[in-house]
């Protein structure tokens, strides 16, 4: 976590003040937030500030029955709730209709060309590739005068699988001297070719392999339903990892040839399941109709096609080579450059970097991008307080007090510290509604098809953005020099298992 280098000290009343009604769990969160921690293995540890005899350690049946009687004693509320929750999900029953009515798809700042059609990642975790290609397609649509256009996500997906396999095997070799049961090695083995990714990862792929239209390399079954492919590749990579670890210790001279053979095997598996893609440097032939229905054709290489996107973006006062990944991680100091240990895809490619700033800085940069007509890639925890059918992300969406007589009180930092929240999904901002200088709600382009939300579009309240948005990727011109200069820092390295290492 962000405080992993802090000195470990036991909880005591000198470190944290505890009110009479404050729970032990709340005390623990305060202690973590203040940089303190417990180390049960410290032989010099002071005794805990409580007496084990003061509490009952195990549950008793009479106690549980007494609690149940208390719940059932209120026939108008709890009995009705039990009957209701038995027939439908509480998220549906407790939807706050007043909040929903305010979450309209009306915005006074919206980019002129949002990009269509709404894309669909299907049963795969490729949201970061869909969000990034939905950003890149806008300048291409302008250049080629297109009404609708979609870039091939499967093309980048193919190369990412192979690059991640190579990355994983390199990290396995680097950590060969660590115990197999170490937290780092176990984390590397957990999901070596995950579908997820980050902006810097897609930047690496586009720089090395380019872009192609969806029609040139469309999705097949394995691209849309990636679980079986991922399982097979993961099992093989775990086999490879054990062999490479043994070789590193006993026959290091064989490492290079054996690793090459393993990557070649993964390349074969991925090619058979996704199909061979266009060569990055060879010319493809693309036919299309422009917005006026006129037939057009182009001859271009994937790398050349990608340059068309970046050149057009540059002409529109945005430069992809200068795109900054702003994040909001309140566990760590603002104005600090962050990275994650051993996280990436392309060996010797651009590293994962995060500029940690407050939400006001992120929102100001996003609004400036939108006012200039540019879509914004952003990462969030989409599973909280949202309704995919309504297309709403709103902290007030659920009335938990009505249904359960409870509220949720974890702060954003505490959610990260306790693994309650992390950056799990990437989407695109295309609009914002501003009143009296303040953003009220944001227009979101998702990649779940047109059957959800408002024909695929979502609305996100500003309050939800504060709580569950962790990242926005913006051009350096739309932030201050002070923010740009953070890139010159030596980054703080977060451990591989940190929540900021979760891939959208």
From TrEMBL:
Primary residence: mitochondrion
Region listing for Disordered, in residue ranges: 1-21, 34-53
Entry keyword Transferase: no
Reactions catalysed, as given in the entry: Inactivates bleomycin B2 (a cytotoxic glycometallopeptide) by hydrolysis of a carboxyamide bond of beta-aminoalanine, but also shows general aminopeptidase activity. The specificity varies somewhat with source, but amino acid arylamides of Met, Leu and Ala are preferred
EC code(s) of this entry: 3.4.22.40
Alphabetical list of SUPFAM superfamilies matching this protein: Cysteine proteinases
Entries under InterPro entries matching the protein: Papain-like_cys_pep_sf, Pept_cys_AS, Pept_his_AS, Peptidase_C1B
Active site (record annotation): 127, 425, 446
Signal sequence range: none
Gene3D superfamilies, sorted: Cysteine proteinases
GO biological process, alphabetically ordered: homocysteine catabolic process; proteolysis; response to toxic substance
Cited Pfam families: Peptidase_C1_2
Entry keyword annotation includes Cell cycle: no
Keywords: Cytoplasm, Hydrolase, Mitochondrion, Protease, Thiol protease
Top-level EC class as recorded in UniProt: hydrolase
Protein's cellular compartments: Mitochondrion; Cytoplasm
Any one GO molecular function term: cysteine-type aminopeptidase activity
Cellular component GO terms, alphabetical: mitochondrion
Family of the protein in this entry: Belongs to the peptidase C1 family.
Assembly information from the UniProt record: Homohexamer. Binds to nucleic acids. Binds single-stranded DNA and RNA with higher affinity than double-stranded DNA.
Cited function: The normal physiological role of the enzyme is unknown, but it is not essential for the viability of yeast cells. Has aminopeptidase activity, shortening substrate peptides sequentially by 1 amino acid. Has bleomycin hydrolase activity, which can protect the cell from the toxic effects of bleomycin. Has homocysteine-thiolactonase activity, protecting the cell against homocysteine toxicity. Acts as a repressor in the GAL4 regulatory system, but this does not require either the peptidase or nucleic acid-binding activities.
Full protein name: Cysteine proteinase 1, mitochondrial
Species annotation: Aspergillus avenaceus
